[in-house]
Amino acid sequence: MGNISSTTAIVPLWVPVAVFAHVFAAFWLLKTVLLGGSSALFKKKKAKKADQGQPSSPLAPSVKGPDANSGAAEPDARLSTDQNQPDQEQQTPFGEQQGFHETFKTAAGSLAGSEDGDEEEEDAVPDVSPLACSTLRQHLSVQPETFDMEWQEMGCSYNIQGTTKVVLQGIWGRAHPGEMQALMGPSGAGKSTFMDILAMRKSVGSLSGRLLLSGRPANTSFIRKTAYVPQEDNFVPTMTTKETLDFYASVILPSSWSGAKKHERVVEVLDAVGLGHGHKTLVGGTLPGGLMMRGLSGGERKRLSIAAGILAAPAVLFLDEPTSGLDSFAALSVMGYLQRMARAAEHIIISTIHQPRSAIWQMFDQVTLLANGRLMYHGPREEMTEWFGRLGYSHSPLEHGVASDWALDLVAVGFAKPAKYYGHTMRTRDDLAAAAKAFMEHYMRTQDVTQSDNLPATTLGNQGTIADRVRSIMGPAAPGASITDIQPDRGNKYPTGALRQFISLVHREFVLITRNPFDVAARCLTFTWVAILIGLLYYGMPTDGSSLRSRLNLCYVGLSFVVLMPYISMGLYTSDKKFYLADASAKLYRPVAYYFAKVFVTTPFQIICALCFAWTLYGMAGMRHGGTAIAKWGAIVTLVYLISVQVLHACAIAAPNQDTAFMMSIVWTTVQMLVSTFFVNFSEVTFNYWLTQLRYISAVYFGFEALVLNEFSGVTLDCSNGMGEEYMNFVLTAFPRMTAAQKQILGRMSQPQPEGTVAVVDYFEFGRPFGVTVGILLGYLGIMHALTYLAMVVSARKEAR
Ligand SMILES: Nc1ncnc2c1ncn2[C@@H]1O[C@H](COP(=O)(O)OP(=O)(O)OP(=O)(O)O)[C@@H](O)[C@H]1O
């Protein structure tokens, strides 16, 4: 039997804990501030360097920013280092208005004025001359495997409530190393579907078709030779460009590569996309929690995406709308770097693109135009207008502008197209079908289509066979048709092992949370300040029986705070889901590596925050003295907090949106707090007693029991003055349905006695051993982790394309 000490507040506990919390938070805040500051300084220096057009390494492109072009005195020097080289880009046999040089000159010159003085603008267009590209090629440490691609009769259909919806049919084409291919079409034409099939990343729908690499059927190893750059990147805003690529290098480059080789590759790729001078620049963007962090410009960010895409030297790089969201000059800059990489490293680039400006349009070698799931054109960019001219749809540059815009207008049907603006154009699906059929006949006639086992023979000039072929192509795609060589790799999809991924993810998670001022630092301070606020209210609690109510309340207040506190982080949990799903769709790492890394990094910080709260409050209020009691209080409060965090995290992942996540969490929290026995003793519930069984899912119920036992068990409060009228009235009002026996206990306590035994533990019918409660709470936490993980994996499956 111990006594509650007559000295109340435990100063040696709460003061060091509160000081630690502030130093801890200040440390992380300072690190973040210094990081942001150095980045800002760095950016200024970098802007100067870019203005001077000084390459920082042999790989850095000789670039000119908008300012450098404004004089237009020597614009072509940049693009034609080798004056003797014939200018391929100017070969526009079918009447394009401007060559690339000329268009770029005009565009860059006109933009220069508007960009003047803008220190943020870091974009520049690289030198894409053959000499510059071959110089770059010589310096690259890794060369991608090169092969010709040929795809035949690709299609996709979905079974929707028993009916077959054909979204893509009869798509043929080819691509060669170093080539830039544009994939265009109106919205819903099937561009994403086609690109996903071609990239072997499509896992839903009935797929058909065949992919040949240098004449041989592709197998699932093809997926490792490709990279996919999505429209939206998924970078951690608080990482630098170098750290970002280091992370990608660690998870996508083969484990057999040494650290030095990976480092070399990261540096050369950053140089190649013109980011070599800003290794320490933060990526920036919106942090989970809403804070905007200054970082890369839109164009630089897109170039970083491209750098991540080409890091593993893929033979084929697929890009989804690489210029979306960029201003005109940044878009030109990004595409310039892309073209340079395609030429230098002989990547095949296949990119969806919407309404490219003239200069960008002319960077493409080949074009695939889709409409309504059909192939309208596939071939050289400069021959597209000629082809449609043959069908009677003529392009007039003066009237219709850029050929790409005109082609998109031409194949867009389903809305009024006044002849005044559109001239002779396609208006109906029948028009599209007729044009697709004509193109297929043309393609079969003019292309040396590779024979393969699954496809009927097609030979140049064999009209009968071609007609058969066309008929089969133009018919609806056979439901359920699939050819194995375009199925996604379902085996070992990851280039690195789970442990390697775990280590890389631990580093990224650490940076993600410690550099976010809303995360570690703010949370630690909030927990401590709230504890101080509550502690001030309870500071100097008496040590006799009159403190019974306060001590009991504090047990409950401590737990209710940690149950409610995770709500301030709901935004972090929902953004975490978005973040994970984007990476999962890119199949960057195993879900289990991600989950363990997340738990491994976040749990210690959560424990620190919970303990700062628990012990500051405990010490200030002057709860039961003694190391064991203090440790037990800290353990229970922390466990309930971890459970609460995990429940909210699980809700954020399982729910389709944040509002639903809030609703699910609030139901759980209500149960936690109501069925904790603090508000109503279970034996007093006469109506709907079954509801009290919900206690078994209430972490607060178990936690409250442990804290009450910790505070009162084996303790004798001095009741020599009795509890007094005030406390008696409080207890009677708070527990109106008391049994006669309970009232008797209370009556005893109300009388002045030399030493009164506190009957709180008896009243609540508490008695579970502390170890059992801890075991139950740990089990609860484990189950919540399992459910969160399950919800994560299920959500990722639902996102399958
Ligand atoms: N899982 C699916 N189930 C049923 N239909 C689908 C599914 N996914 C896509 N579609 C349909 O397939 C068609 C082609 O879609 P896709 O996303 O490939 O077009 P897109 O050309 O990329 O369009 P956008 O430019 O708007 O992205 C659309 O009509 C779309 O509604």
Automatic annotation (TrEMBL):
Residue ranges constituting the ABC transporter domain according to the UniProt record: 149-397
Protein location: Membrane
Superkingdom of source: Eukaryota
Alphabetized InterPro entries for the sequence: AAA+_ATPase, ABC2_TM, ABC_transporter-like_ATP-bd, ABC_transporter-like_CS, ABCG_transporters, P-loop_NTPase
Keywords annotated in UniProt: ATP-binding, Membrane, Nucleotide-binding, Transmembrane, Transmembrane helix, Transport
TM stretches of this protein: 20-42, 520-541, 553-573, 593-618, 630-655, 661-682, 694-713, 770-794
Keyword Hydrolase part of the UniProt annotation: no
Annotated region described as Disordered, given as residue ranges: 46-98
Signal peptide limits: none
Origin species: Tetradesmus obliquus (Green alga)
Biased composition (Polar residues): 80-95
GO MF annotation, one: ATP binding
GO CC annotations on file: membrane
Membrane protein topology class: Multi-pass membrane protein
Coiled-coil regions listed in the entry: none
Gene3D superfamilies: P-loop containing nucleotide triphosphate hydrolases (3.40.50.300)
The protein, known as: ABC transporter domain-containing protein
Main location as per UniProt: membrane
